[in-house]
Recover the amino acids of this structure.
């Protein structure tokens, strides 16, 4: 159950209830094979196929990770500023 929650909400469980971009370990450019191609692979026992649309350098994954970290840093800064302001200016 925890693995499914991490796959849906991201790896960092402390941020699950805060609306930020989740840090998902997903390759969005990963090739997905249709059923007919998979059946053909099993019949010929040839599973080594080219992935012309894949992202071998995981560039998209790196971009998503940077977005998630930037949002969390910004939200942390805003929360810290709010607490600092509330403590020292009230």
């Amino acid at each position: 159950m925890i693995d499914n929650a991490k796959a849906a909400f991201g790896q960092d469980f402390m941020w699950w209830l805060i609306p930020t971009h989740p840090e998902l370990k997903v390759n969005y450019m990963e090739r997905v094979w249709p059923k007919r191609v998979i059946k053909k692979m099993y019949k010929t026992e040839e599973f080594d196929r080219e992935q012309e649309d894949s992202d071998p350098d995981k560039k998209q994954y790196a971009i998503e990770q940077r977005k998630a970290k930037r949002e969390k840093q910004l939200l942390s800064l805003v929360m810290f500023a709010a607490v600092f302001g509330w403590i020292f200016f009230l």
About this structure: The chain has one domain: 2-29+55-89. The chain has a mean pLDDT of 77.
